[in-house]
Amino acid sequence: xxxxxxxxxxxxxxGSLATLNEAKFLEIAWGLxxxxxxxxxxxxxxxxxxxxxxxxxxxxxxNGRGHIVKWGTQKQVLAHPAVGVxxxxxxxxxxxxxxxxxxxxxxMPCSTxxxxxxxxxxxxxxVGLQLEHGVERNEIAKTIRKLMVEKQxxxxxxxxxxLMEKATLCFKEAGSSYQSLDSxxxxxxxxxxxxxxxxxx
Length: 201
What we know:
Blueprint: E1 9-13, H1 22-34, E2 39-42, E3 66-69, H2 74-79, E4 83-88, H3 92-101, E5 105-107, H4 114-124, E6 128-130, H5 137-149, H6 151-171, H7 176-190, E7 194-195, E8 198-199
Parallel strand pairs: 1-2, 1-4, 2-3, 4-5, 5-6
Antiparallel strand pairs: 7-8
Family: Belongs to the UDP-glycosyltransferase family.
GO molecular function: UDP-glucosyltransferase activity
Protein name: UDP-glycosyltransferase 76F1-like
């Protein structure tokens, strides 16, 4: 990834619990390939039901444009200047990691709070795009190109950077997140009637 220009790599990972069937996995693979953008895809053990469904020679046919790894340190990868888009399941930790690095998102929620997180990303904060018609290779490729090479992507990137600035301010000593956490810690430390979960006598 070090050889790539800034903001031109799609980073793809779906967390530690999500699973995909073979059909969805292949649609994502071909969508990434057809986008003509460099990508780094985390395919952890257990992501796909059954054996690796990638057709023989798939990666070789991309001439070094695509890389698949078993795991990655997400925050470090998202902080890399080459990353331009985060293709995610939109778990809360992943969503926050992306916001804190100013990376636009492609949203593919799988369950629970991911649905709401994805809607906030795409419809409220407008720092990403959600796949609206299921996991389909043409839509995936089209969405990647929208974010990476079209004017819409530039606007979304600008909003993502502005949201990153707001998040950074929240984490500073005078920021709202810092103050809320500090207030909680002080409150817990002020409770002297309980010690290690048992009421002191």
